[in-house]
Amino acid sequence: MSLCVMSYNILCGGDDRLPLIRDVVKEQNPDALALVEANSRANAEQLARELDMHLTFGEGNSEFHIAWLSRMPVVRSQVYRPAAMQKLMLEIEIQWQGVPLYLFATHLSAGRSQQGNERRLAEIKAVLDITRQAEGKPNLLVGDFNAIAPSDTVGPGPDIIKDNTPPDIAFSRDVINLVLGDGYTDCYRAMHASTPGYTYKLPLPPWLRLDYIFASPEMAPLLCASNVVSGEIASKASDHLPVWAEFR
Questions:
Q1: Dist CA 83 CA 97 (whole Å)
Q2: Residue 176's closest CA among 218, 208, 138, 135?
Q3: Which sequence spans correspond to the domains of the chain?
Q4: What are 14-67's pLDDT values in tens digits?
């Protein structure tokens, strides 16, 4: 039995774009879906009903929340709000192939500056302190990391770098390097060595890859496919494109 997991930043709870978001998700038909910026619990509940999925909702340290939608029953869930984080991390445990699978979703803070990068570094260290509790067990870490991977390029986009911050600082690779250093596999990059896979920012042509699915050493050998969802509906549904990964 295969497992498809999707991560989707739906922009401020989705609001009047909920039908478009629903259609994007329906087309991919994931078994588990992390909704980043699930700022409206009512909207998350509506999506769960329309997609016939179980909802686990996590309230953050601010107006930004995260939800997991799952086709499998959720055995256990935990919301983490470490002091270093502006937002949160939400964990659920499901059963897949007869064993526990731990799914972590997070949303790191934004800010294209040295200060923003230092804040994200503190946040990812707190996140990895939590995921190490599942070390040696199958787990996935997903979400909007507001950071780019070591080998990623920055596409042509608007000039939003403040205070003449050099691009190597504004778009630092340090955050993702720490995730990879903990043994995680970047699912999209494992399947696409050179394709940019940009997920942000719409309605402009996407020019950054900020959204990830990372697989633990126990899950990485089972990865069989991963991609970014594109198309007309996805381009209107949010300012991010969703990313998915399939395991078999």
A1: 35
A2: 208
A3: 3-247
A4: 999 999 999 999 999 999 999 999 999 999 999 999 999 999 999 988 899 999
Residues 149-206: tens digit of each pLDDT: 999 988 887 655 555 565 556 667 999 999 999 999 999 999 999 999 999 999 989 9
What one-character-per-residue DSSP string does 62-97 give?
SS--EEEEESSPPSEEEEE--TT-SS-EEEEEEEET
Give the separation between CA 149 and CA 227, rounded to whole angstroms: 16
Q: If DSSP codes are grouped into helix, strand and coil, which group holds residue 188? A: helix
Specify whether the CB–CB gap between 224 and 246 falls below 8 A: yes
The span from the CA of 20 to the CA of 159, in Å, is: 29
Fold for the domain defined by 3-247: Deoxyribonuclease I; Chain A (3.60.10)
Closest CA to 211 of 119, 116, 108: 108
Per the rule left: phi > 0, alpha: psi between -120 and 50, beta: everything else, 13 is: left
Q: Can you tell me the distance from the alpha carbon of 37 to that of 109, in angstroms, rounded to the nearest whole number?
A: 12
